[in-house]
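Format notes (please read before filing issues)

Several people have asked whether sequences and structure tokens are stored in separate files. They are not. Every record keeps both together, in the order shown below: the sequence lines, then the token lines. Line labels are part of the format and must not be stripped during preprocessing.
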Amino acid sequence: MPPWNFPLAILTGMTVSSIVAGNTVLLKPSSLTPVIGAMLVQALEEAGLPPGVVNFVPGPGGEVGEYLVAHPQVRFVSFTGSREVGTHIYELAAKVAPGQKWLKRVIAEMGGKDAIVVDETADLAAAAEGVVASAYGFAGQKCSACSRLIAVDAIYDDLLDRVVAGAKALRVGDPRQHETQVGPVADGGQFKKVAEYLKIGKREGRLVLGGNADAKEGFYVEPTIFADVAPGARIEQEEIFGPVLAVVRARDFDHALEIANDTDYGLTGAVFSRDSARLEQARREFHVGNLYLNRKCTGALVGAEPFGGFNMSGTDSKAGGRDYLLLLTQPKVISERL
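Then the structure lines:
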């Protein structure tokens, strides 16, 4: 069950990896992007995939998805989407239905609350560029998107000014136009969710950019930055999935890592620093599945940077790597005495 935000890339990876591992597949696309799922199935059939290997089952997640997960003949569930749905699937799959002869396995990738940490030794221009790209690419609708910037006190104001300037320069508009850098959010439901977080953010932080949502000509949300957000605030803890950035001030690097780790999630993170000892400390202590040093926290390269996270970010399945295929197989040991 793939998500709507990468309706072909994740869909293809989940489907084809299962086929390569020798499985048949029930493909239930996101209800927002069923046509792309249908086109993938058509392409696989035209490539010669035998009938019945991939079976296209579109429909509402609450009905079709629920039925498939609970069905006693389903052995394995692969899901990418929200924490709410992912934890429900995990619970439902754990129940043994009448006639079921196995314990179902689940791969779940459920989002994040990803942070970029910047210290006083960092290249601030590079850090600001990385934050803006990570926070506002795809209008922030990526599980790996930077939704928290944690800056040490010494460079907080300077870095904030640079990030505001970079975000302010982004071109918002029709995603079909080449010059557009930030398009609309996915649909009315997502728009309402992000708009509500804008209201929350105005209570929890200092609005320094954006803050408006307009659905007159599409579901557009301005690139938004809330500064001086306290650790533990809702916009610092909860996944928004929109172009909204919470900026948090840390006393020092140790405090910054403490704040970064203090969420239920653990998907991606980044550290900008020229101090090799601090980068080594981040390797040990920054508890995320994908950690990036002196670069943005989005854009994992398939085959080189297998992707997946800890805690409520999911089962850390590390999609995009060879080991991922082993999760889709059932080991069998055969011993023969000669």
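For reference, the curators noted about this record: The first helix runs from residue 9 to 20. Residues 231 and 259 are 7 Å apart (CA to CA).
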